[in-house]
């Protein structure tokens, strides 16, 4: 390909005047027999009174009366098939090994360039018009950004659309941007800027062709780009105005709120809220204007999956009245002690009775996660395959509807009480009559972190003697968030077992595994949750593999793999039971109390398996297994000194057994 930069950087070629040379000089100097055929043909044309330009014009569709003549058709077809036309045009514009000679030659070259520019412009303009039609959207912002449009608006999809509608324009711009060492130039990719440029050109044809401009405008507004930047992007054809972005977000927010209100009215929902730190940036360069932050609350509602069943259980006012009257009468009769959580209730809990089998099954699964045993046929044996789920949710997508954040302090009792009124107010339950009717006819779970749920429970106790169900807050079912529980569980295990002076603590595991970022924690502060989470997964896997080496009497992973292949399923199951009973159970900590190092290692194994069970059941949506961990979590948090979570789990177990509406728990 000719180097375009040569034309840009070099001077114009010299034009040699040669029009005064005699036309027949070559012919007069050579014998007739030595004249080339092309020259002889031109001489014959001249003798016949036909110029070469007239011949070309007739052959290439210039004379309508001669278009269908057989010799003309054959000559034209031969010229088309030979590929000579492109070579001729290239040599006229860029003669090989010579400069442009004569004014006529220069004029012809200029005419060809003008034709090329005009033709290219027509082709590219048609492609651009075709692409512009696909980007034309209405003025209604809801047509631009909605759930379906956001799913399909990826950069790859937009690039494919540009390539399909304007292939010549796209390829020409990409080729222009390629460098001589493009294969080594990994830092620059012209596809992104070319895609933006083509859409900016479509925007120049009509301001209705503004799909990408609207999306970029909304993105800039959502990212808090200063108002002055919008004018620059709008001038470049990449965005719309700041005022449009403000109105667009208002319309989008209103549409999202309308959808949330409809969902809240038609389906039972889980209400979620937590504190948020709102930053208010400085707007002017004055001493009194400083960037400040303030406490606020972010709220979300999540429609429950089995809406028909949830509606039957939580939106039956007669059943709810009968349920609360039964509880009230029970306490008035004085038999309150017969309806309180006891140790016997924990021992009778299905999770407590099945805990040993579940832990042994988990130990077996750690064996078959070892590379080389993942495809072992024995893992499908009845003694070795995983226990079935207890109550696993079906795979589906939960839709979270965000509400407007409010400047309310949810960490206080007053703030929590105000939020219980603010959330239904945003859902158009905004009068006293509507609130009372809403609280009477509907119950629903409200969830958050431990502090949030603790405040709600204490509010319910403080307002237990109020006059109606709304003020008594009986329509609220407080449920703690399991993510916060898992965070607290990780921190508690890490805090109690990260002993740098111990030969069996987590500090030794971190050093052996080469983990960084794990420092000695305090009771109020430790490493980031994701760091501890990843470390606990690794150390649990490493410890379980070490216990399998101990139980099988082997020293290496290769020997362990060979042992698994030689052993029967019953022997492998017995080894898993041995690991659980002698190296990871409460009984083992009592049995080996005389050996502090071994006892400490057993306690770590036990609690790491507990955390593994919590994490696995949460990630796989097995709410039955999550519930089965509650008795063990109650014992752990009580012993670890985490009184808030111990109290919260006890409240859940008590509510589930003695106060939950029929069919809810």
TrEMBL record:
Acidic residues bias (residue ranges): 16-33
InterPro entries hit by this protein: DUF6589
Region named Disordered: 1-33
Ranges for domain DUF6589: 340-664
Any Pfam family: DUF6589
Protein name from the UniProt record: DUF6589 domain-containing protein
Protein species of origin: Rhizoctonia solani 123E
């Amino acid at each position: 390909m000719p180097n375009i930069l040569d034309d840009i950087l070099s001077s114009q070629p010299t034009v040699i005047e040669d029009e005064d040379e005699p036309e027949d000089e070559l012919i007069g100097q050579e014998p007739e027999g030595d004249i080339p055929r092309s020259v002889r043909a031109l001489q014959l044309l001249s003798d016949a009174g036909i110029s070469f330009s007239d011949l070309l014009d007739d052959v290439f569709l210039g004379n309508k009366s001669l278009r269908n003549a057989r010799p003309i058709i054959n000559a034209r077809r031969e010229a088309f098939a030979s590929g000579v036309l492109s070579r001729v045009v290239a040599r006229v514009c860029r003669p090989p090994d010579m400069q442009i000679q004569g004014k006529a030659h220069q004029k012809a070259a200029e005419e060809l360039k003008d034709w090329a520019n005009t033709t290219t412009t027509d082709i590219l303009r048609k492609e651009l018009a075709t692409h512009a039609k696909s980007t034309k959207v209405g003025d209604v912002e809801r047509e631009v950004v909605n759930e379906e449009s956001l799913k399909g608006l990826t950069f790859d999809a937009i690039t494919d659309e540009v390539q399909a509608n304007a292939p010549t324009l796209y390829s020409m711009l990409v080729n222009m941007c390629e460098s001589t060492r493009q294969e080594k130039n990994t830092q620059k990719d012209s596809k992104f800027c070319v895609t933006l440029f083509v859409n900016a050109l479509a925007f120049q044809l009509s301001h209705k062709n503004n799909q990408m401009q609207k999306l970029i405008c909304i993105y800039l507004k959502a990212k808090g780009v200063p108002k002055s930047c919008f004018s620059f992007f709008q001038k470049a054809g990449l965005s719309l105005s700041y005022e449009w972005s403000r109105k667009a977000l208002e319309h989008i927010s209103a549409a999202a709120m309308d959808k949330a209100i409809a969902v809240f009215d038609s389906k039972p929902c889980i209400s979620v809220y937590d504190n948020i730190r709102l930053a208010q940036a400085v707007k002017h360069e004055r001493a009194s204007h400083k960037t400040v932050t303030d406490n606020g609350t972010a709220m979300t509602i999540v429609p429950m999956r089995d809406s028909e069943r949830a509606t039957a259980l939580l939106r039956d006012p007669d059943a709810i009245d009968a349920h609360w009257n039964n509880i009230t009468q029970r306490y008035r009769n004085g038999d309150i002690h017969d309806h309180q959580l006891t140790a016997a209730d924990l021992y009778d809990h299905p999770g407590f009775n099945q805990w040993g089998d579940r832990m042994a099954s988990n130990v077996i699964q750690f064996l078959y996660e070892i590379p080389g045993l993942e495809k072992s046929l024995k893992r499908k044996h009845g003694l070795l395959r995983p226990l079935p789920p207890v109550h696993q949710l079906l795979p589906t997508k939960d839709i979270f509807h965000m509400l407007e954040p409010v400047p309310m302090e949810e960490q206080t009792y007053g703030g929590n009480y105000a939020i219980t009124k603010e959330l239904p107010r945003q859902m158009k339950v905004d009068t006293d009559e509507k609130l009372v009717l809403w609280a009477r006819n509907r119950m629903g779970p409200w969830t958050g972190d431990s502090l949030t749920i603790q405040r709600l429970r204490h509010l319910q106790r403080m307002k237990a003697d109020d006059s109606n169900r709304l003020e008594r807050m009986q329509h609220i079912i407080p449920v703690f968030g399991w993510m916060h529980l898992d965070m607290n569980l990780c921190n508690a295990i890490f805090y109690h077992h990260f002993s740098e002076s111990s030969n069996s603590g987590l500090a030794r595991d971190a050093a052996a595994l080469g983990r960084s970022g794990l420092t000695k924690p305090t009771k109020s502060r430790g490493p980031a949750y994701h760091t501890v989470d990843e470390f606990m997964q690794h150390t649990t896997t490493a410890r379980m593999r070490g216990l399998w080496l101990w139980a099988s009497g082997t020293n290496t992973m290769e020997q362990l793999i060979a042992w698994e292949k030689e052993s029967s399923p019953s022997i492998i199951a017995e080894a898993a039971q041995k690991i659980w009973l002698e190296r990871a159970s409460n009984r083992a900590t009592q049995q080996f109390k005389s050996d502090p190092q071994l006892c400490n290692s057993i306690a770590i194994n036990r609690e790491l398996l507990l955390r593994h069970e919590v994490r696995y059941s949460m990630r796989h949506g097995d709410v039955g297994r999550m519930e089965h961990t509650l008795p063990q979590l109650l014992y752990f948090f009580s012993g670890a000194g985490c009184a808030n979570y111990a109290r919260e789990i006890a409240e859940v177990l008590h509510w589930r057994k003695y106060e939950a509406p029929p069919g809810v728990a």
